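User: I'm new to structure prediction. If I give you an amino acid sequence, what do you actually give back? Let's try with this one:
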Amino acid sequence: MNIGIICYASVGGSGVVATELGKALATRGHDVHIISTEMPFRLGEFRAGLSFHQVITPTYPLFREPQYLLSLANKVVDVTREFNLDIIHAHYAVPHAAAALLARQVLTSTPGAIAPKLVATLHGTDITLVGNDPSYSEIVAHSIEQSDCVTAVSQSLCDSTRSELGVTRDIRVIPNFLDCAVHRRVVQPELRKRLCPGEGTKLIVHVSNFRPVKRVDAVLEVFDRIRRQVSSRLLLVGDGPELATAYRLGRQLGISDLIDTVGAQEEVTPLLSVADLFLLPSAEESFGLAALEAMACEVPVVASRVGGLPEVIEDGLTGFLHAPMDLDGMAKSSLALLQNKSLHRQIVGVAQQRVSEKFCADRVVPMYEDCYASVMR
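Assistant: Good question. You get back a string of structure tokens that encode the predicted 3D arrangement of the chain. For your 377 residues, that looks like this:
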């Protein structure tokens, strides 16, 4: 099939999953066209069957805001006509599915023209933050209802879509996934020595885009409790508006010298491979792709019991979940993992097996292919 994938290029779960899906589909023989404002994060080197089309948004004095949706819709029309797209797969209901719907109206305005089918994947922000805002809710709901196939990355997100937007149509739950040949623990002794030089010192990691919902302040508060009982260091991977909060709180807690930051990284597997623990005390997670990556690299996860995280982490079996404000509980579970080698081995072993059985690309990508096939029929 000829498939167009619309996604954001910035660091974040939706863009990563959309890019990985495009790569996997191209490997499986489809012609895939990534449509975005810039080269997506993790698109990587050239791959046969995979191409990139940039959306250019001009600015004019008459318009007070960038007309991204209009430029995107126009690009979808151009790419569809040039490459005879069968499917447009929009990651996010707004603005991407909305732009695709506008593009379909343009395409079908020509007599005899056949417009591509529209698949929309909900990732969370389009529902939990934007979707329930009265300024957008009607457009979000309309974009979902008018798509030919709708998927959500977790059952939790599916339920939220129904309850918050009143959507009644069928929504398929297709979880996020990993290329399990890439996301696995690799031996990195020199990197480990550089990031965690002390003998017996533990390395705790947090990876995110450092938005307020990720609660980097809670990461540092939990780490401060841990380091008082176990020699440890904290590695922050990523960049965003709350990184300054981490710096400030680190100084207030007197732990700045125990914290390393490396900014946004396209490849996190080497960093996860030298970690002993992953912290994810988010206020909300529709899925929790960062937690899945940690589990695949045999790093135990201590996280909030919110959103789709319980669908990824089985509490007490493949990691530990706590109420978002239960920082003492998170610290207690973290210390148990760091001080009990047998428990650590047990948790990472079962977690890695769960990733292999449920969240690898070869198990999940066919679910999207089935979605495409159903709308083409």
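You can read the tokens as a compact description of the fold. Here is one thing that stands out. The first helix runs from residue 13 to 27.
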